[in-house]
Amino acid sequence: MEESDPPFLKFYKNLFDDDHSAYKKRDNGDSYDVEEWELPMIDLGRLDRGGWEGEDCKREIAEASRKWGFFQVINHGVSCDILEKMRCEQIKVFKKTYNEKMSNHRDLNIPAGSYRWGTPSATCLRQLAWSEAFHVPLTDICSMGGATSLSTTMEQFATAVSNLAETLAEILAEELGHKSSFFKDNCLPSTCYLRLNRYPPCPITPQVFGLMPHTDSDFLTILHQDQIGGLQLVKDGKWIAVKPNREALIINIGDLFQAWSNDVYKSVEHRVVANRQTERFSTAFFFCPSYDTMIQSCVENSIYRRFSFKEFRQQVQDDVKKLGYKIGLPRFLLRSN
């Protein structure tokens, strides 16, 4: 097989030598034999119109968060121009060579230490993520000062989706009968981040995922993806493929919101299936609190114990290092339950 960029086959040679033939024998195609569904579509323009239209819109957001954990939005406040510029800029930066990306070559115009690829902790092929990303905190984006087209576009995108995330979080809290400044006070630019993703063509899919099954360790994730497809999630106990829509943004509930809502809103397992011929791009915004923020149910009779975001993240990292995968919220259930 021809080497890829990044050099997955070379760097993870031991995993391929150990697992490739075994996975080839027992692969049942479960990554592809899934039905394609369209996520619930919510027009946020109704919020501006107020009245019964605005209230219906809020109820739909809460209902999708309860039943799906995922939904998509249009008239979301992020212009098509910004979305297209963001995609073009990240394509350009990912076209740099592997060595340039690893060494943070000056032409990248992106903060040092942002580049990630593969899965350093992987012990088998099913734990390997066939993807690369630039993981950039919002404070780093602001410090770039709009000096380049990339930094300007990232800042415009980040500002718009930050406002959207805060609006959605407040709506979800309100639908639980809980009005507060919790999200505005705790989910700040210093704690949220963007992740620019590229999923290169993968010669051994479906043995290897673009991103292995997981839930997100935040309150909300806002995703813009291209038309290639590959995002899949669990619905009613089975995997479904998400039909791409480049004009919409995908919203999903994270672990922290599930705990905060006492399991009313669902953080749903999802994955990305690699494509054999075509690369895929997406941009994700993660709505996170500070590490010292305490997470506890907004209602009585919580099923989770009180914990800090730092404690949660540390437990996730420890589990991934020890087990190769994330346990997440079950670690924080009250023993009486």
Automatic annotation (TrEMBL):
Spans traversing the lipid bilayer: none
Domain Fe2OG dioxygenase per the UniProt entry, residue ranges: 190-289
InterPro entries: DIOX_N, IPNS-like_FE2OG_OXY, IPNS-like_sf, Iron_ascorbate_oxido_reductase, Oxoglu/Fe-dep_dioxygenase_dom
GO BP terms: gibberellin metabolic process
KW Ion transport (keyword) present: no
Statement: the UniProt record of this protein carries the keyword Metal-binding: yes
GO MF annotation, one: metal ion binding
EC number of this enzyme: 1.14.11.13
Keywords, ordered alphabetically: Dioxygenase, Iron, Metal-binding, Oxidoreductase
PANTHER family for this protein: 2-OXOGLUTARATE (2OG) AND FE(II)-DEPENDENT OXYGENASE SUPERFAMILY PROTEIN-RELATED (PTHR47990)
Protein name: gibberellin 2beta-dioxygenase
Native species: Mikania micrantha (bitter vine)
Lineage, opening ranks: Eukaryota, Viridiplantae, Streptophyta, Embryophyta, Tracheophyta
